[in-house]
Amino acid sequence: MIIMSNQPCVYILASGRHATLYIGVTGHLFERIHQHRTGVFDGFTRRYGVQRLVWFEHQADFPTAIALEKKLKRWRREWKVALIEKDNPFWEDRAMVLGLPPLDQA
């Protein structure tokens, strides 16, 4: 999969299967996931160990991506789980398709 820089993308991270979720939007998915994993910024994902990329979807432009992010954040948890499990039933880390190493399974 070729990921272009500055390509709008909505993503969902999880701390584990059926665990804490985080929804975000970025134009640089590889870099953003790397930031979440290394804890560069203080905040929700660092505090709760939310690092596993379980779902992402590229969008045509940033207004569309931001609108989808806001929509997903308003969804009920079971709808988010269903969205993830539609293509990722075991909540596997999808960051490896971006070229990132797998998370430690400790």
From TrEMBL:
Hydrolase: present as a keyword of the record?
yes
Molecular function via GO? endonuclease activity
Keywords attached to this entry:
Endonuclease, Hydrolase, Nuclease
> Any keyword Hydrolase?
yes
Specify the superkingdom.
Bacteria
- Check the record and name the SUPFAM superfamilies matching this protein: GIY-YIG endonuclease
| InterPro entries (UniProt xref) | GIY-YIG_endonuc (IPR000305), GIY-YIG_endonuc_sf (IPR035901), UPF0213_domain (IPR050190)
Domain GIY-YIG: from-to ranges = 6-82
**Annotated family:** Belongs to the UPF0213 family.
* UniProt name for this protein: Endonuclease
Q: Please tell me the species this chain comes from.
A: Sphingobium xenophagum
